[in-house]
Specification:
- The strands form two sheets. Strands 3-2-1-4-5-6-7 form a seven-stranded parallel β-sheet, sandwiched between helices. Strands 10-9-8-11-12-13 form a six-stranded parallel β-sheet, with helices on both faces.
- It contains 14 helices and 13 strands.
- The protein has 400 residues and is an alpha/beta fold.
- It has two domains: 227 residues, Glycogen Phosphorylase B (Rossmann fold); 148 residues, 3-Layer(aba) Sandwich (Rossmann fold).
Length: 400
């Protein structure tokens, strides 16, 4: 079988899709990527690059990003469909955050498997939109608030929704009006540990929670030049590439952790220069570390609540102090709070004192680590990207 992979040019999404494509080709199938110009190389895979120049996302507000996303969707559809049609693919694996994948699959007349590299976007009563920090609330009040949030999101996403509606009319695909309408009605492949998401009694049947798509690298051991004192707690701090460049925030977190008597390892993701890194009062500051190996030794992780890091914390059974900022991070942090797996600090709570109080409380409380044990056990048996292959094969077989 020949699968077309369509995703966004974001590192975490590309990494997840490459893991899925590798599992697909390991089974003897063929994989092709439809990519925007200017993206990173896709070694080992057939990559169809759209014509024209690359266009970087604007450094503006949400509306500017929404307009950029709309142009990207239209470009993928207009230029990508003829390229995809020439391949004769059997199935499309499409990023949930890019509606072009659903439009192209429908235009080709092939089944679609939606891929959730972030929190699943499948609509569900009581489950707020992924970028909201709200709790799960299926009550009448919660559903009313959910509808109001959906209306606001619809206004923000109006440029992309107009593209979806226009192309669906032109291509004769029916009454598709939004990103949600472009999701697969039959299968979502999700990078989730079972039980971490909010309950989904209505539509959860189509979501396959596979755990991290990429398998762990056994060659990546704990850094030999980092030698923690086993008699003191070790706190690992990683805020991703959005907050990783905020040296002042990292410095406050490191100082707060050391106030609690903890050893601190900071990973800034290559966002700081040497002078900025040297000014952080941590025991160790690195651009990158083998995260899974570090978490296996850590007592606490201070994280931006990016899903990949949180999934690795679940697998390692490490409590979290979440400092969410953007994208689906508030929603991921809300699930950490929902299950009692750590604490969450909002944007106005990130001074030295509140961070120190939260770190001290988590290091002294055995509850989060105990509640993490079932998640760690599930993560150990999660099939990852390899588990997606038989599901996609069955999807194609059932569509013939």
């Amino acid at each position: 079988m020949h699968a077309l992979f369509v995703t966004l040019p974001l590192y975490s999404h590309l990494r997840g899709f490459q893991a899925l494509a590798r599992a697909w080709t390991d089974r003897g199938h063929q994989a092709s990527f439809l990519v925007l110009p200017g993206g990173p190389p896709m070694p080992g895979f057939d990559a169809l690059t759209l014509p024209g120049p690359s266009v970087a996302p604007p450094p503006g507000n949400v509306l500017a990003l929404a307009r950029h996303g709309a142009r990207q969707t239209e470009r993928l559809c207009r230029d990508g469909l003829p390229m995809a049609r020439s391949l004769g693919v059997d199935v499309v694996l499409g990023d949930q955050m890019e509606p072009a994948s659903g439009l192209i699959a429908r235009a080709l007349g092939v089944p679609l498997a939606s891929v959730a590299c972030a929190l699943p976007m499948d609509p569900e009563p009581g489950v707020p939109l992924p970028f909201l920090s709200w709790p799960y609330d299926p009550s009448a009040r919660g559903l009313k608030r959910q509808r109001a949030a959906g209306a606001v999101a619809g206004l923000l996403m109006a440029p992309q929704d107009r593209v979806v509606a226009r192309i669906s009319r032109e291509w004769g695909l029916g009454d598709l009006r939004s990103l949600a309408d472009c999701l697969s009605p039959r299968l979502t492949l999700a990078q989730m540990i079972p039980g971490f998401d909010y309950p989904r009694p209505a539509g959860g049947w189509r979501i396959a929670e596979l755990g991290p798509f990429a398998p762990p690298d056994p060659a990546q051991g704990f850094p030999p030049d980092i030698r923690p004192d086993p008699g003191r707690p070790l706190v690992y701090v990683s805020l991703g590439t959005i907050m990783g460049r905020r040296a002042g925030v990292l410095a406050r977190i490191a100082a707060a952790c050391r106030e609690c008597g903890a050893q601190v390892l900071v990973s800034h993701g290559g966002c700081l220069d040497g002078a900025q890194a040297a000014a952080i009062p941590a025991d160790w500051v690195r651009a990158f570390v083998p995260q899974r190996a570090v978490l296996a030794r850590a007592d606490l992780c201070v994280t931006h609540a990016g899903l990949n890091t949180v999934l690795e914390c679940l697998g390692a059974g490490v409590p979290m102090l979440a400092l969410p900022l953007a994208y689906d991070q508030p929603g991921v942090a809300a699930r950490i709070r929902h299950h009692g797996l750590g604490s969450v600090l909002g944007p106005l709570q990130r001074g030295r004192r509140p961070v120190a109080q939260a770190v001290a409380a988590l290091l002294a409380d055995p509850g989060p680590r105990a509640r993490l044990r079932p998640f760690a056990a599930l993560a150990a048996t999660a099939p990852g990207g390899a588990g997606a292959v038989p599901l996609v094969e069955a999807l194609v077989a059932g569509s013939r």
